[in-house]
Structures are given as C-alpha cells and as structure tokens.
Specification:
single chain; alpha+beta; Jelly Rolls; 6-stranded mixed sheet; 5-stranded antiparallel sheet; 2 helices; elongated
Length: 227
C-alpha cells in the first residue's frame, strides 16, 4: 500500500514497461504536481516512475531513502535501488546505481514533464522495499533557513521576502499558462485548417468519382444503343 504525506492527490497514469536497458519486468508511473513527501512500495524486478511538470529555469530538489524494515540493523542486500531522473526529451539529470538513498538538485533548462524512476534489481527470493521520496520545485525548493542565516535578516524581512518570491512565482506561472494556452490555440488553428483542406479534398474526390461513374454509364449505354 502507498502512503502519502502531502495534501496533493496522486493519480495513476499508465504502466511503463521500460527503464533504460535494464528493466525486464513492468513498472508503473505516477503523475504528481507539487509533492512534499510520499512513501511507496517497490518490489524487486520492478520500476516505479514519478512525473512532475516543471517550468523552465526552475530549481528542483529531490531526496530519497529506503526505509529500514529493521531499525537498528543494517539494510538487507536486497534493499538497493537504481534511480534515474530525466526530462521529457530524454536529457539525464541524475543517475545512481544500487544505492540506499540519495539526493539530486538541478535547474531545469526546458519546461515540461520531468521523471524520476526507481528500479529494484531482480532478487531471489523476491523482496519488497519501502521508499521515502521528497520532490520540491520552484519556490518550494528554496532553503529559507540558509537564506536567513546567510543574510542575517530579521523575521519580518524574511517573511516579506517569502511573500515577494511567492508573488513572483505566481506571476511566472500565469505567464507560463498563457504561453501554453497560445500554443494550444495555435495547434487548434492548424488542426482546423488541415481538416478544412481534407474536407474540401474529400468532396472534390467524391464529385470526381461520381462524374467518372456517370461518364462510364453513359458510354456503356451508348455502346449498347440503349440511349
């Protein structure tokens, strides 16, 4: 069973049968928007992918850790994961092999869906592990504690800076959504134009076939001297 720590809802998208060249069994992908922390189970030989839509030039930070089933004891050898973070165009931003936990942080170059995939290698007998995963983007990824320490700012000034960054983030989101809307409108106009030309071509083709049939029938009847 999966456990969620944020108020955001997780939605199951589709089964994902591939994880690079190493996956032989199926896994699945989850789509998330802004997630503070989630916990999920992962069986050996399977992959679980989590996707987040991120704007360009945004900071994104992720932390993951396998939960120790026996506190105070070393993790079993079967509890290892391979983690890969990629962009929608296939760019690789993080890759760790057979680890028990890790961290990634990067600035996005392009807007779109970024995917974090967790793969557990085959193990006999089959093993199941629990993974804690935290993924933050944009203003949520900013470390305000360090900002306060480095700047030696007062509490009120820090809160004002948070508010300013929040407003700036909302404004950037508005511009981003407007750009996406314009792209969709452009796509709709292009599709409508293509459909119009297709309709005209279909009508012209149908009329041509009808005319050819009439001409053929007229020629046939004239040869038979029926008309």
């Amino acid at each position: 069973m999966e456990r969620e720590y944020s108020d955001r809802a997780l939605s199951l998208i589709r089964w994902s049968p591939n994880f690079g060249n190493s996956l032989e069994k199926g896994g699945f992908m989850l789509s998330i928007h802004v997630v503070e922390a989630i916990r999920f189970d992962l069986n050996s030989g399977y992959t679980k992918c989590i996707s987040e839509d991120i704007k360009s030039n945004s900071m994104t930070v992720g932390n993951y850790q396998i939960v120790n089933p026996n506190e105070g004891q070393p993790l079993p050898d079967s509890h290892r994961v391979t983690v890969r973070v990629t962009s929608g165009n296939g760019g690789s931003y993080h890759h760790s092999e057979s680890v028990t936990g890790g961290h990634f942080a990067f600035h996005t170059v392009e807007a779109g869906a970024y995917m974090a995939c967790f793969y557990a290698a085959d193990h006999h007998p089959s093993a199941s592990m629990t993974v804690d995963f935290e993924w933050k983007s944009g203003i949520a990824a900013k470390d305000w504690t360090n900002v306060a320490k480095k700047g030696s700012v007062e509490l009120m000034e820090l809160e004002l800076k948070k508010m300013f960054d929040s407003v700036q983030s909302i404004q950037e989101d508005m511009f981003y959504l407007r750009e996406r809307e314009e792209e969709m409108q452009q796509l709709n106009r292009s599709t409508n134009t293509k459909l119009s030309w297709l309709s005209i071509f279909s009508i012209a083709f149908a009329l041509s076939v009808a005319g050819l049939q009439l001409w053929h029938l007229k020629t046939f009847f004239e040869k038979k001297k029926l008309i």
